[in-house]
Structures are given as C-alpha cells and as structure tokens.
Specification:
3-stranded antiparallel sheet; 7% strand; single chain; oxidoreductase; Cytochrome p450; Cyt_P450_E_grp-I; mainly alpha
Length: 351
C-alpha cells in the first residue's frame, strides 16, 4: 500500500488515500481467508479480479439510493445501483468459487502427513472446507461467509484508518504529537511493529476517538426482546425488532463533553474500552451479538495508522479546502493526499 502511494506521490504529487487503505483492508482480509496476499504470484489473476469487483460493489452499497426514499421509482433503477450490484454479484460469485475450487484441489494434492499436521488449515477457507457431517457448508453458505468476512474486514479497516487520517490532517498540532510519539517510541531506523502498539497511547486514543465520532455502523444489527419491557419510560412489546442508534449514543451531550469535537485526550485516564465497559461507547456492539473480529480489527487499524504516520509526512494537496466536517479537493469523494517520506526508502521495500 505505502509503496503504491509513494509511487503516486513521486509521479503526480497526489495519491488516493481512501483507495489505498481499502486495498490494504482487502489484502489483510484475503490473507486471512485464503492464506495468500492478493499481490502474490499464486491466485494473482483471480484475486485481482475479486478485489476490483468487490471495490465496485462497496461503491454501490455506499451510495444513497433514491429508490429507498421513493420506492415507486425502484423499477427504473435511475442510478444503476441494482444493475451494478447484480453484475457484481455474478462476477464475485465466479471469482470466489474459482478460489474455493482451487483450495479443494490444493487439499487433494497434500500428503497425509501434511493434512495431519494441519498444513491445509492455516486459513479460514481451508478450515471451513474441512467441516464434515451436519457442520458441512454448501457452496452458497461458503459464498455468504466469505463475502461477509471480506466486507466486514476490509470496509471497517479502510474507514477507521481513513477517518483517523482525515481528522489528523484537520488538526496539525495533534498530527505532530502523534509523529513525536512514534519517533520517541519507535524511531525511524526501523518500521513500527505490532508489539509497539501498546506503547503508543496517543495513537490508540486517536483510534478510539475515531470509532466514537465515526462508528463503523450508524445502527447496530437488529436485536429482539423475548418479553415486553420498559426502557427509559418507553414500553417495548415482546418480540419487537430493536435497533440501537450508535450514532446518537456516541454524540450524547449528557455523557460526552463537546461531543462533536475530535478530542482523543478524552480517553486519557478513562476506563472506556471498545469491549463495552459503558453502553455509551460500544463501537463494535456488545455481548454475543458484538463483532467477533473486534480484537483483530482494533490491532489491525492501530498498526495500519501507526505505519502510515511513521513512513510518510502527510499533507493536503494544493487547493484542498478544509471545513469542520470534511476535506474537499476537486469535489472528490475520497481523501486525496500529498506527502514526503519520513523513513529511508529501503524500509518500504520490505513491506
């Protein structure tokens, strides 16, 4: 990711940060699912097609659909969303099924010793393919699991890192504090490692504040109550569908001081955690319905942001405008950045 950004910066003094972190999220998700990095020699063509198709579908899913506001216009598909998602689903199914079949062939080629040692189960898809009996998944179920994990992993990582970088570019003093912390703890002679994350409290608090102000989802997944109950004076009948408004909770002025301000220092000496120590701060949900990838997602976003900050001194390209809510450059919906290397080039070659 950083090598691709550096090449863009060298060539045209601008790079699409949003696109780059989405690619990073895809790379990490695919590595967990298939055991390969999509840029590797194996599966290269299939994975590249999968990545491009998935990015297109994420774009359509992120659009405001006029048909949701005016259902009578749905049949017209004025924005081409239904058609785009339909074509994307066909291509996505084709790409994922090709990878599933390749995994099945790989398993057949393994020796009995390799199978017993677990060599064929070092990624999620291999584990799923090894299920037997009542636990066995058919192709449609495998498709659903793979797509859900790709969407949850790549989108949450890209949104977390992208939003954090946007807030830092709007606050130069906070940005510099984060760089100073990295220089003091890690330096510039080596790249930041996962083991360094616990020693970077400001970076961690920046991610926490990003998740508060820009939660991964505005509403938690639908819940239901078995029995009737009363919450805050409201009667809720039994078997109701309940939606928790995460957006409102994270901006509740009765709990948060200056709730619309991006202020990571609010988490200094605070007992609030992403695991749900207080219901005003549950960015990943809570309990059995909470995000199963919480711990992996947090460490990945923290590490990715730390690496981005350490390697490149980011700034906005000439002509970009900043407001309290967004950064605009040539009306691009993505975050476009400029910057200079902060570390020796040879360190990036190892990424």
């Amino acid at each position: 990711m950083l090598r691709a950004i550096r090449e863009d910066l060298d060539a045209k003094h601008e790079a699409n940060f949003t696109e780059a972190v989405l690619t990073l999220g895809m790379s990490l998700s695919i590595g967990l699912l298939f055991g390969r990095d999509y840029g590797g020699k194996v599966f290269s063509e299939e994975i590249q097609t999968l990545v491009l198709t998935f990015k297109t579908m994420v774009k359509y899913l992120s659009m405001i659909n006029i048909s949701d506001l005016i259902p009578s216009l749905r049949w017209l598909d004025l924005q081409g969303i239904e058609r785009g998602l339909g074509l994307g689903e066909v291509q996505l199914r084709k790409s994922i099924m090709a990878l599933i079949e390749q995994k099945r062939l790989d398993k057949i080629r393994l020796s009995s010793d390799e199978i017993e040692s677990g060599a064929c189960q070092r990624d999620i898809l291999s584990k799923l393919l090894s299920l037997e009996g009542e636990d066995r998944l058919d192709d449609d179920q495998l498709m659903g699991v793979v797509f859900a994990l790709m969407l949850a992993g790549s989108d949450s990582i890209s949104r977390g890192v992208g939003r954090a970088m946007q807030e830092l570019l709007k606050q130069p003093l906070l940005h510099q504090r984060a760089l100073d912390e990295l220089d003091e703890v890690v330096g510039r002679r080596r790249l930041v490692e996962e083991s360094d994350i616990s020693s970077l409290p400001l970076i961690n608090n920046i991610i926490k504040e990003t998740l508060r102000l820009h939660p991964p989802a505005q509403l938690l997944i639908p819940h239901g109550n078995v029995e009737q109950c009363e919450v805050a004076g409201y009667h809720i009948p039994a078997r109701s569908t309940v939606l928790v408004n995460l957006y409102a909770l994270s901006r509740d002025p009765s709990f948060w001081n200056s709730p619309l301000e991006f202020a990571p220092d609010r988490f200094v000496d605070s007992n609030l955690t992403v695991q749900g120590s207080d219901f005003h701060y549950i960015p990943f949900g809570y309990g059995r319905r909470g995000c199963p990838g919480l711990n992996l997602g947090m460490i990945t976003v923290q590490y990715a942001l730390a690496l981005c900050l350490q390697c490149i001194l980011w700034r906005l390209p000439a002509g970009a405008t900043i407001s309290e809510t967004y950064i605009d450059w040539k009306n691009s919906p993505d975050l476009i950045v400029d910057g200079d290397l902060r570390v020796d080039l040879h360190l990036l070659e190892g990424l």
